[in-house]
């Protein structure tokens, strides 16, 4: 088996991830699995740790992120250029959309079981998105990125102290609902110039644009129901020309992936996307704020190896529940 490194964000899930790691570590000791674990100490640290682990020697290695989608996002950014790395994930955050899209069990000990089983085989190659910002900074995403209303809400939620308080009461979702309602009545839609594989589109009164590698975002919303992370294509969603009340309806329907039936929701597929807008729009990648429009996105096909139960027929009959089974 390849060497296993864990990068643990003890602050994910509002500190609950530390307890999750203790459970995982107990199990590693019971099973006598050799491993090395590193704790993140500040935002951005997971990226640095992943880069250092990857560069230590060119041996095949596994890096398992223990945290939320933000932790996985950072690990991806630290390891994406190193081809001898296979990535895995143990859900310890509040959203955990990676687990939904890549069929990782919701329970951390079950997720470890699956990882140890999959680690005996080769990882599956998946696509990643490379975003180039106006200042030439590059960011990679594994789940999805978005510009506009959704990225504004995600930014406000992550800045807010209310998130920590409500998460402690297991009411984490309420903070999204609060900011959704707050911004719903004040947010100004914008004209967006979108180019998809060279084809130009102009959308007026646009609420947001998302570019997805897998279906789930925002803690279980099925924004791109048909997205496949290994098909060499992004699924692009544009929401425009909607009244504020109808937008609310669209948001509710996203949990079941039914929003795509609204005429104001447009969907496309493509590999190269650029987003320009009249006003500077907030931008997120895997739920993390990365800056503002304009930007360009390029799909890097099969750029990463990941441990996933997707398309593993032999995994289907096994007992561990997938993260999405609770929906
Ligand atoms: N030691 C640390 N102290 C403070 N923040 C940290 C630390 N380590 C990592 N972070 C930051 O914590 C943030 C949240 O992490 P993460 O997204 O993994 O958890 P989450 O928000 O609970 O889960 P999700 O994104 O799935 O909702 C990330 O932006 C990351 O940069």
What does this molecule look like?
The protein is of the alpha+beta class and 327 residues long. It folds into two domains: 3-123 and 307-326, Probable inorganic polyphosphate/atp-NAD kinase, domain 1 (Rossmann fold, 3-Layer(aba) Sandwich); 129-302, Tumour Suppressor Smad4 (Sandwich). The protein is 31% helix and 33% strand. The chain contains ten helices and 17 strands. The protein has helices at 16-30, 45-56, 69-79, 97-102, 108-118, 149-159, 162-168, 172-184, 244-254, 313-316, and strands at 3-8, 36-39, 61-67, 85-91, 124-133, 138-141, 144-148, 190-196, 199-212, 216-217, 221-222, 234-240, 265-270, 272-277, 282-285, 288-292, 295-306. The strands form two sheets. It has a 15-stranded mixed β-sheet that branches. A two-stranded antiparallel sheet has the order 10-11. It is globular, with a radius of gyration of 19 Å. The two termini are 34 Å apart. The model has no long low-confidence stretch (mean pLDDT 91). Residues 9, 11-13, 40-45, 67-71, 74, 93-96, 287-288 line the site of adenosine-5'-triphosphate. Residues 9, 11-13, 40-45, 67-71, 74, 93-96, 287-288 line the site of adenosine-5'-triphosphate (ATP).
